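Weekly structure sync, notes
Attendees: PL (lead), two postdocs, one rotation student
Agenda item 3: pending single-chain targets
PL asked that the sequence for the first pending target be pasted directly into the notes so everyone works from the same version. It is reproduced below exactly as submitted, 297 residues in total.
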Amino acid sequence: MAKNWFEKFEQHKVLYSYVAFALYLLINNSINASSVWMEHNRDPLSTLQWWEPLLWEYSSAIGTLLLTPFLVWFFHKVPPRFHAVRWQLFLHFVASLVFCIGHISLMVVLRKLVYGLLGRGYDFGPLVREFFYEYRKDVWGYLFLFTLFQLGLFVYRRLKGDAMLIGSDHSEYSASASQNNTAPEHFLVRKLDKEFLVKVEDIDWLESSGNYVNLHSKGRIYPLRATLASTVNILQHKGFSRIHRSLAVNHHAIHSISYDPSGDGEILLNSGERLNLSRRYKDEFRSRCQAASLRQN
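Predicted structure, written out during the meeting:
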């Protein structure tokens, strides 16, 4: 049952994750709106209308939802690393400022629109003061989203299964494989409390993803903690070649190759998957394919 649930989640993981986060924001901001309304309602002189706290909170939630895909893209591009910590902190600081500016802009536009439709005016307040007030909350929200994303990614990879080389450090294996023209026959995959083997020959293509390389095999994806360059170096003697800055392919999984006038190309795999072939790697890819063909003959 758990396996079937996870396989269904895999088919629409982005949609399900986005809907779950939207439900969380709906519940959280509804609670905040009711708290604001009850506090103001205690004051007999308050002129606050019941819909105003809802508008304030829901406009904030909509702004966050609209910006979330860009944050997820950025979190993918800047994964946490143990080196260049100051540079990472600077990038996240800039990203949090951009997030705050975008969030404020979206929610103020929505509030002015609704207030205007109701024949009323909306005053955001002094810009500098209100910006620092909102940034204080938004930077905390940014950290929450970053932590939630990393935690979700960790759990997701544990459920999917992490791949690793058997009985050897990845960097050491990479060096020895290059020198001895050897490559592993299998990768060991640990999935929760189970271990099983994935044949290298069953891996169709490789995809760089932050600190990981995703091994695509028979419709499944196994994350390997390594760089794409070192992984291709290990698997080149099994017929793997780099075809893009973030992609590599197994020659035996290729059905056909087509080229554009620009010099780029597209690789159609036997599985029906299509991969981009960058002109930067085209010549090297062709020479590797020809060398492999000569060795077979």
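Discussion points:
- Residues 102 and 183 are 49 Å apart (CA to CA).
- The longest helix spans residues 127-160.
Action: rotation student to compare against the earlier draft before next sync.
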